[in-house]
Amino acid sequence: MTIKEPPIAPVVLITGAAQRIGAVIARTLHTEGYNVVLHYLNSQNAAQVLCAELNALRQQSAISLSADLNDVCAIQQLAHNAIQQWQRMDALVNNASTFFPTSVGSATVAQWDNLMGSNARAPFFLAQALASQLAEQRGVIVNIADIYADRPLAQHTLYCMAKAANVMLTKSLAKELAPQVRVNGIAPGAILWPEQGGAVSAGAQTALLEKVPMQCSGMPEDIANTVLFLLRDAPYITGQIIAVDGGRSINV
User: Fold this and answer.
1) Residues classed as catalytic
2) CATH superfamily, with its number, for domain 11-246
3) Which of 1, 97, 148, 221 is the most exposed place for a label (fewest CB within 10 A)?
4) What is the pLDDT of residues 196-223, one digit of tens each?
5) What are the domain boundaries of the chain?
6) What b/e sequence results for 124-139 when a residue is b if at least 16 CB atoms lie within 10 Å of its CB, and e otherwise?
7) Does pTM top 0.90 for this prediction?
C-alpha cells in the first residue's frame, strides 16, 4: 500500500500581524491551512500569544518574528528567517502601517520617514527580498492600501501620499513580477478606528459613517476574507485595488 505524503502547507508572511486586522488575517489564513509567519515590532507579547494559539490548533504551523521595517537590513533578515522556517514562501501580506495626522506647517522629516517607510518603502523592499521565492511558488502579494490614497483626508497629507505610493507599488509590481507572482491591494474604509495619535472622536466617527452607503463600519473579517479570496480564489486577478469600504469611495 502506498502511503501518501501529507500536503505541504502554503506559507504566508503577514506584517503587523500581532493585533487588530493583522491578527484576524493571520487567524483566517491559518484556519484555511496556511502556515503563518507573524511579524511584529513592539507587540511581542501579543505576537507570542497568537503564535501559541495557532500552534495549539496545528503543531508547528506558526512562528513570530520581530523586525523594524524602517531598517532595510532588518527587512532582509526578516525575509531570510521567514523562508528558512519552511523553505518556501507562497504569500506576502503587507499589512503593517502607521497612521497619524501631519498638518501642513507642522509636519516633520521624521514623520515623513515614518509614514513613507511603513506604507511604501518597507512593502517594496520586503517584496523585493521575497520575489524569487514567491515566483517559485507562483505566489501572491497583497498590500493593504487605503481609500484615502484616492480621496485625501484633511490634515493627513503625508499618510495619503504614502498610501498613494502603496497603490502605485501594487500596480507596478503586478506588471514587473507577472506572470509568476500576482500582486493586488485592498483599500479598507471604516473597519477599526485608529488608536493613540490617530484616534477619531465619537462625533467624527458618526459624521464619517453617515457618508457610508452601508451605514455602518466594517469588520476585520471583511478584510481578512478579501485577502483569502485574492490568495486562493482569484488566479486571473492582478494589479487591482479592491475597496472594502461599504461604498464610501463611491459617495461624494
Assistant:
1) 159
2) NAD(P)-binding Rossmann-like Domain (3.40.50.720)
3) 1
4) 555 567 777 777 788 888 888 899 999 9
5) 11-246
6) bbbbebbbebbeebeb
7) yes
